[in-house]
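[Meeting: bench + compute handoff]

Bench side (C.D.) handed over the final construct sequence. Compute side (W.E.) agreed to return the predicted structure before the next meeting so the bench team could plan truncations. Sequence as handed over:
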Amino acid sequence: MRTLLSGGIVVSMDPAVGDLARGDVLITDGVITEVAERIDAPDAEVIDATGRIVLPGFVDTHRHTWQTAFRGIGADWTFAEYRVAMHGTLKPHYRPEDIYLGNLLGRLEALHSGVTTMLDWFHAAQSPEHSDAALAGLRDAPARSIFCLGGEFGSPDPVDGELRRIRDGVPDGGLVTMALGLRGPLLTTVDVVAADLKVAAELGLRASVHVGSGGANGSRPIAEFHDNGLLRETTTFVHANGIDDDELLMLADAGSSVSISPDVELKMGFGWPMTGRMLAAGVRPTFSIDDCPSAGGDMFATMRTAYVVQRGLDGSLNSRDLLEFATVDGARACGLSARTGSLTPGKDADVILLRADDPTVFPVTDPAGTIVAAGHPGLVDTVLVAGRVVKRDGRLVGVDLPALQARLLESRNRIAAAAGIALDGTWRPPTESE
């Protein structure tokens, strides 16, 4: 089967392919086979991309998707309040069905806004059934997803048995793959981290871990990884706000990646996003949403926050940098650079078409600058994942969204009632010290 995306403004994110003011993209059996100014393919299904910006889908390297039902409730929360609310108050009342709906609707929402690849950092594995439901939610969304199974925060309990059980049911090469979510040295012991990494290596899985500076206690998480021989090219460090300069160099030397969530980091007091410092140290940043109770779920806002903050701090970065972080660099951090992240012949056709004729961006003079400075989810007209059209003319294909939304509302209301919290905007969780 062949599909031709015809006549769009092509932003390939591949220096060898370049950008085209008017270009075509040919897809054969789900794989990009040619990108050129004009392609003759009379046997192909034609998707008219006139008035559209054609670029690779976005890559989100860290999202706690199970929390989707409580979108917006934590807009004013501190991190301490978030931990108490989501993990201490609400999570104990989640049933597997609630996890499934959160992951499915959350993944569809990300896809709707142009995120074709997403790492789901799952830390609500209260039972095997909860984990299975999370994975099922990802599988039922027509998107490229990485199920990153995390252990309970602060628990030393081994995860190898559950990790192996789930891994046995996730075939290689599919749209849904796996990773391991490490608890990290701030939440468990170095021995537990080492054991988890050993299992991940045996199973061929990448790892992701939340870290930050130690603040008053002076801990140095990256140095602790380094000193114990645990830094890996296959590990992504989430946030990493405030880590020391020598730790940045340790990350660069190891080839590790970093996932930055600028909106959550700023509003929850983690510190300035590390975008500029990482880049200066030789580490290519990637972007993530983190959690939708506290922040919006689209990559446009994420790029813009990181961009304006860094420009305000030191004037560095340009719009092309931001697009790279959100596409090719994200794909590399997920171990998927051979499959996605750019419009490169030989890669899977994970492609989004943005409306260039929308009044909010018209006329598009500089496509990259327009996407970063003025882009928004309403521009996402068409989405393809591995060559399959999953959103067309602004609507997800084959998804009964009203029915799913009704089920998610029932789930949210039941959990809130069981937890004894109001949904009128007046409830505020106590901090852990209260």
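W.E. noted at the follow-up: The mean pLDDT is 94. C.D. will use this when planning the next construct.
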